[in-house]
Amino acid sequence: MLYRLAFQMTGDGYLRVTGVARDSSAVSALHLNDKVFGATVRAAQMAPFQTLRLLEAAREAGKQPGVDVCCEAVELTPEQVETMCLQAGRVKIA
């Protein structure tokens, strides 16, 4: 499923990742930092170019606290969504 991901560094230093897909509930997660998020992306075994795009967006969010940094649409399987700790309805802290 194609997700559009947004990254934001919260005021207390967490990396918030929110994803939206057509005809699906929004999913989100709070990660301790971009390194923890990077570990979940690598565990999800995404294509190298997708991994790089997501890691760059997460790093950019750290440089601009409080500003949403968007990533273009990324194809994610349900297993990858789960591995990246993204959940619908509430925020999971990873």
Strand portion: 25-35%
Backbone shape: globular
Helix content: 25-40%
Annotation, overall tally of beta strands: 6
Oligomer: single chain
Number of helices: 3
Structural class: alpha+beta
Mean pLDDT score, rounded? 88
Radius of gyration based on Cα positions: 12 Å
Taking the sheet with the most strands, its summary is: 6 strands, mixed
Q: Report the end-to-end length measured between terminal Cα atoms.
A: 22 Å
Order of helices and strands: EEEHHEHEE
Low-confidence stretches: none
Features:
globular, 33% strand, 3 helices, alpha+beta, 94 residues, six-stranded mixed β-sheet
How would you describe what is shown here?
With 94 residues, the chain is an alpha+beta fold. The protein is built from 3 helices and 6 strands, in the order βββααβαββ. The chain has helices at 34-43, 48-63, 78-83, and strands at 2-9, 15-21, 27-31, 69-75, 87-88, 92-93. Strands 1, 2, 3, 4, 5 and 6 form a 6-stranded mixed sheet that branches. α1 packs antiparallel against α2. The protein is globular and about 30 Å long.
